[in-house]
Amino acid sequence: MAEQFGVYRCEICGNVVSVVEPHPPELVCCGQAMTLLKAKTKEMEGEEKHVPVVQVEGNKVVVKIGSIPHPMEEKHFIELIQLFAKGKLIAEARLYPGQKPEATFLVEDASGLKAREYCNVHGLWG
After folding, report:
1. pTM score
2. What topology is assigned to 47-125 in CATH?
3. Is 2.30.30 the CATH classification of the domain at 7-36?
Protein backbone atom coordinates (compact mmCIF):
# COMPACT_ATOMS: atom_id res chain seq x y z
CA MET A 1 0.00 0.00 0.00
CA ALA A 2 1.22 3.51 -0.80
CA GLU A 3 2.38 5.54 2.21
CA GLN A 4 0.22 8.53 3.16
CA PHE A 5 1.98 11.77 2.11
CA GLY A 6 4.65 9.64 0.43
CA VAL A 7 6.31 10.91 -2.73
CA TYR A 8 6.99 8.18 -5.30
CA ARG A 9 9.07 8.22 -8.48
CA CYS A 10 9.05 5.95 -11.53
CA GLU A 11 12.60 4.82 -12.25
CA ILE A 12 11.79 4.38 -15.95
CA CYS A 13 9.98 7.56 -17.06
CA GLY A 14 10.59 9.85 -14.06
CA ASN A 15 6.89 10.34 -13.25
CA VAL A 16 6.43 11.66 -9.68
CA VAL A 17 3.34 11.08 -7.51
CA SER A 18 2.45 12.60 -4.13
CA VAL A 19 -0.01 10.42 -2.18
CA VAL A 20 -2.79 12.19 -0.31
CA GLU A 21 -4.82 9.14 0.76
CA PRO A 22 -3.22 5.68 0.83
CA HIS A 23 -5.06 2.90 -0.98
CA PRO A 24 -3.94 -0.57 -2.00
CA PRO A 25 -2.35 -1.86 -4.13
CA GLU A 26 1.15 -0.42 -4.54
CA LEU A 27 1.76 2.37 -7.04
CA VAL A 28 2.85 1.08 -10.45
CA CYS A 29 4.15 3.01 -13.47
CA CYS A 30 5.69 1.66 -16.69
CA GLY A 31 4.94 -1.88 -15.48
CA GLN A 32 6.93 -1.74 -12.23
CA ALA A 33 6.49 -0.56 -8.65
CA MET A 34 7.31 3.10 -8.05
CA THR A 35 10.11 4.00 -5.60
CA LEU A 36 9.23 5.74 -2.31
CA LEU A 37 11.52 8.76 -1.92
CA LYS A 38 13.01 9.62 1.47
CA ALA A 39 13.54 13.30 2.21
CA LYS A 40 17.15 14.43 2.29
CA THR A 41 18.19 16.64 5.21
CA LYS A 42 20.46 19.53 6.21
CA GLU A 43 23.36 17.17 6.78
CA MET A 44 23.59 16.24 3.10
CA GLU A 45 25.62 17.87 0.35
CA GLY A 46 23.67 20.51 -1.54
CA GLU A 47 21.53 21.53 1.42
CA GLU A 48 22.23 25.25 0.97
CA LYS A 49 20.09 25.19 -2.21
CA HIS A 50 17.50 22.60 -1.18
CA VAL A 51 16.41 22.73 2.47
CA PRO A 52 13.13 24.67 2.83
CA VAL A 53 13.25 27.80 4.99
CA VAL A 54 9.90 28.59 6.66
CA GLN A 55 9.16 32.23 7.52
CA VAL A 56 6.01 33.05 9.52
CA GLU A 57 4.41 36.50 9.65
CA GLY A 58 1.08 36.17 11.50
CA ASN A 59 -1.04 33.81 9.41
CA LYS A 60 1.14 34.28 6.29
CA VAL A 61 3.78 31.61 5.72
CA VAL A 62 6.51 31.99 3.11
CA VAL A 63 8.54 28.89 2.24
CA LYS A 64 11.78 29.70 0.44
CA ILE A 65 13.95 26.95 -0.96
CA GLY A 66 17.52 27.12 0.27
CA SER A 67 19.63 29.72 2.01
CA ILE A 68 21.03 30.30 -1.50
CA PRO A 69 18.18 30.56 -4.07
CA HIS A 70 17.67 27.35 -6.03
CA PRO A 71 17.93 27.50 -9.85
CA MET A 72 14.60 27.55 -11.67
CA GLU A 73 15.74 26.56 -15.16
CA GLU A 74 14.03 24.34 -17.73
CA LYS A 75 16.20 21.32 -16.87
CA HIS A 76 16.68 21.97 -13.11
CA PHE A 77 13.95 23.40 -10.90
CA ILE A 78 11.80 22.94 -7.80
CA GLU A 79 8.55 21.24 -8.87
CA LEU A 80 6.66 21.06 -5.59
CA ILE A 81 6.58 22.69 -2.15
CA GLN A 82 4.46 21.07 0.57
CA LEU A 83 3.56 22.50 3.98
CA PHE A 84 2.70 20.26 6.94
CA ALA A 85 1.21 21.00 10.36
CA LYS A 86 1.01 18.39 13.11
CA GLY A 87 1.87 15.62 10.64
CA LYS A 88 -0.81 16.53 8.12
CA LEU A 89 -0.42 18.06 4.67
CA ILE A 90 -2.16 21.45 4.81
CA ALA A 91 -0.98 23.16 1.61
CA GLU A 92 1.12 22.65 -1.48
CA ALA A 93 2.27 24.65 -4.48
CA ARG A 94 3.45 23.56 -7.93
CA LEU A 95 6.34 25.56 -9.35
CA TYR A 96 7.63 25.94 -12.89
CA PRO A 97 10.84 27.11 -14.56
CA GLY A 98 11.26 30.88 -14.40
CA GLN A 99 9.35 31.29 -11.13
CA LYS A 100 10.95 32.15 -7.79
CA PRO A 101 11.81 29.06 -5.69
CA GLU A 102 9.26 29.97 -3.00
CA ALA A 103 5.57 29.76 -2.12
CA THR A 104 3.27 31.79 0.11
CA PHE A 105 0.46 30.19 2.10
CA LEU A 106 -2.21 31.53 4.47
CA VAL A 107 -2.80 29.37 7.55
CA GLU A 108 -5.08 29.53 10.58
CA ASP A 109 -2.48 28.17 12.99
CA ALA A 110 1.23 28.65 12.32
CA SER A 111 2.48 26.37 15.10
CA GLY A 112 4.46 23.21 14.33
CA LEU A 113 4.94 23.89 10.63
CA LYS A 114 7.34 21.85 8.49
CA ALA A 115 7.99 22.07 4.77
CA ARG A 116 9.51 19.84 2.11
CA GLU A 117 10.25 20.26 -1.57
CA TYR A 118 10.90 18.17 -4.65
CA CYS A 119 13.76 19.12 -7.00
CA ASN A 120 13.50 17.46 -10.41
CA VAL A 121 17.26 16.71 -10.35
CA HIS A 122 18.15 16.15 -6.66
CA GLY A 123 14.92 14.67 -5.29
CA LEU A 124 12.94 15.20 -2.10
CA TRP A 125 14.23 17.51 0.66
CA GLY A 126 12.69 18.41 4.00
Report:
1. 0.87
2. Immunoglobulin-like (2.60.40)
3. no
